[in-house]
Amino acid sequence: ALGYFDQARAAYEQAVAANPNHLDVQSGFGRTWDGTGQALARLGRNDDALRAYTRAVELQTATRHQAPNNTQYRNWLNEHLTHLAQFHRDNNRHADADLIAAELEKLSKP
Predict the structure, then answer these.
(1) Among 93, 89, 3, residue whose Cα is nearest residue 40
(2) CB count, 10 Å around CB of 2?
(3) 78-110 burial, b if ≥16 CB within 10 A, otherwise e?
(4) What one-character-per-residue DSSP string does the chain give?
């Protein structure tokens, strides 16, 4: 799975470079980072997984900031934050997971 996400990230990186203001491309790039985080976590590469999850959240947050009324971007950000919170719980980082849960609570409000 990691190889698939590596290829997808490389393709999205080129697409973002060619279309830096295209929000769907930026959002898709975030989704590839989220998938990468999941694959790395399954492999036990926790430091790399944390970086990947964090990058997914950064990209999706920027996308949502540019299109705050787009519910799909909000849903994907919610998904990325949920994965990051679960990662923290799985690694006994409960304070970090609680901070993300607070962010998810804010995100759920219109």
Answers:
(1) 3
(2) 15
(3) bebbebbbebbeeeebeebbeebeebeeeeeee
(4) -HHHHHHHHHHHHHHHHH-TT-HHHHHHHHHHHHHHHHHHHHTT-HHHHHHHHHHHHHHHHHHHHHSTT-HHHHHHHHHHHHHHHHHHHHTT-HHHHHHHHHHHHHHH--
pTM of the model: 0.91
Contact assessment for residue 30 and residue 67, using Cβ atoms and an 8 Å cutoff: no
**pLDDT, tens digit, 9 for 90 and up, residues 46-71:** 999 999 999 999 999 999 999 999 99
Q: What confidence score (pLDDT) does residue 45 get?
A: 96
Residues belonging to the chain: 110
pLDDT for res 38: 96
Rounded CA-CA distance 74/54 in Å is: 16
For the chain, which residues score pLDDT lower than 50?
none
Tokens 């898709």 correspond to what residue? 28
